[in-house]
Amino acid sequence: SPGLYIVATPIGNLGDITLRAVDTLKGVAAVACEDTRITGKLLHHLGIKQRLIRYDDHAGEHDRERLLALMEAEPVALVSDAGTPLISDPGYRLVRTARERGIAVTSLPGANAAVVGVTLSGLPNDRFLFAGFLPNKAKAREDTLASLAAVPATLVFYETAPRLGASLAAIEAVLPGREVAVARELTKKFEECRTGAPSEIAAHYEAHPPKGEIVLLIAPPGDEAKGEVDVDALLLAALAEAKAS
Ligand code: SAM
């Protein structure tokens, strides 16, 4: 039926597409995508012939209106180059406007680099905060990290290989003592995940310059850093209790 179908696609391994995604991509009237060449390749791999409509970060009001008009009459899929649309990818305005106009919107779950990074890193996952890309400029990057310093959750960022060194240095300066994880080339042949102190990880990647795509994670502040829990006092109290009983 007519409406907008948000469809997650793989982040590397082409096997990571769901059966529902394949059925939907086959069944819609058109597929809106960031880059027709990249999505064309994926659909070719899946044996699907489709009408592709470009919809990227530069899409203006006019492109959006055309797509909205189409999805009022027919089913339209939205995909991005990789992973889950809208997550550091285009689509927010389209979804917002579609909902405002009462167009049916549904979202088909699938690959997402941030979630793969969280599950793989071994860092606490009961709470995590996805914070997209850190700013490019040094001062803005440090300010962003400082603004997140007290958040009691694992912090998750998207990162690029050329900027990894600068980000690790900033973490070491602004969030001293916090463990980090670098999750690289997820779901691909050279997938790796390294955890440790930012200085250790930085030293490794200075010796072996990283390639490919990266999720950068920062462990939550420890109890020492929060200054709230006095572990010694808790232990002494527990000992006293054990002795008394
Ligand atoms: N929407 C996508 C998703 O759901 O993961 C993210 C798109 S964002 C423009 C691209 C960034 O996602 C990359 O710079 C990298 O930080 C991260 N990323 C995407 N694929 C990845 C992979 N296979 N391994 C590690 N990080 C990846």
UniProtKB/TrEMBL annotation:
The keyword RNA-binding does not apply. Its EC number is 2.1.1.198. PROSITE patterns: RSMI. GO terms for cellular component: cytoplasm. It catalyses: cytidine(1402) in 16S rRNA + S-adenosyl-L-methionine = 2'-O-methylcytidine(1402) in 16S rRNA + S-adenosyl-L-homocysteine + H(+). GO terms for molecular function: rRNA (cytosine-2'-O-)-methyltransferase activity. Keywords: Cytoplasm, Methyltransferase, rRNA processing, S-adenosyl-L-methionine, Transferase. It comes from the Bacteria. Residues 4-196 form the Tetrapyrrole methylase domain. The keyword S-adenosyl-L-methionine applies. It holds the Pfam family TP_methylase. Gene3D superfamilies: Cobalt-precorrin-4 Transmethylase, Domain 1, Methyltransferase, Cobalt-precorrin-4 Transmethylase, Domain 2. Its main location: cytoplasm. It is found in: Cytoplasm. Belongs to the methyltransferase superfamily. RsmI family. Catalyzes the 2'-O-methylation of the ribose of cytidine 1402 (C1402) in 16S rRNA. HAMAP family: 16SrRNA_methyltr_I. This is Ribosomal RNA small subunit methyltransferase I. It comes from Novosphingobium barchaimii LL02.
